[in-house]
Amino acid sequence: MTDDEARWIARAGAGDAVAFRRLVDAHAGALYRVCARITGDKAVAEDAVQEAFFNAWRHLRDFDGRAAFATWLHRIAVNAALEQLRRRGRVETALPDGEEAEGLLARTLEAQPGPERVARSAELRRGIEGELARMSVLERSAFVLRHHEGRSLEDIAAALSLNVGACKQAIFRAVRKLRAVLEPELP
After folding, report:
1. 111 with 36, same domain?
2. Are 96 and 129 in contact (CB under 8 A)?
3. 84 and 20: one domain?
4. Last residue of a domain, one of 88, 108, 142
5. Range of 78's domain?
6. Are 54 and 118 within one domain?
């Protein structure tokens, strides 16, 4: 946390809307990416981010600094995304725009040009997205936070209200499921 961010948090906690706006501007992109990957729907992700910032504003005085501010916000955002899915009765969803698949494909396929690679990439992307969509929200959320957001196990556990062991298990199950899809393509 920077000194500026600490000042913004203190001022926002005292009711300064301009300071809170600076916090929103600093963190909105990261929260949107997490919510979009969890929900698989841009509109739902936007609603979740809005709800997360609303809840953060209401409870900013409760922020005690034990965790990093970004971790605290991510926990609120993950909970808001999961709540949006519950409200809509949607638990299993595909990821938006194949973002998750792109990272995995880049590490899986050799860089060979041509229509065969394009077709194989599309086939793998569908397989990976399908597997991610079949995962539980917990597995998908833990995987996204770990492998796309680079969060520590402790941060993920806090964001998902789990202990670290349960967090490791969720990530392990997600990786195992994706490995089954990718295994035939690995050298």
Report:
1. no
2. no
3. yes
4. 88
5. 3-88
6. no
Q: Report the candidate in 81, 130, 82, 85 with the shortest Cα–Cα distance to residue 104.
A: 130
Number of H helices, E strands in the chain: 9, 0
> Domain check: are 31 and 107 in the same one?
no
**78/51 same-domain check:** yes
SS3 of residue 181 by DSSP:
helix
Residues present in the chain in total:
187
Give the count of domains, the chain: 2
| Residues 8 and 119: beta-carbon distance below 8 Å | no
pLDDT at 114: 64
Where the chain has pLDDT below 70, the residues are: 1, 90-114, 117-118, 185-187
- How many angstroms separate the CA atoms of 2 and 68, rounded? 11
What's this model's pTM, rounded to 2 decimal places?
Answer: 0.63
Q: What are 118-143's pLDDT values in tens digits?
A: 677 777 777 777 887 788 888 988 98
CA-CA distance, 171 to 176, in Å (whole number)?
9
Contact 128, 182 (CB under 8 A): yes
Task: Name the token pair of 83.
Answer: 């709540």
Residues 150 and 119 sit within 8 Å (Cβ to Cβ)? no
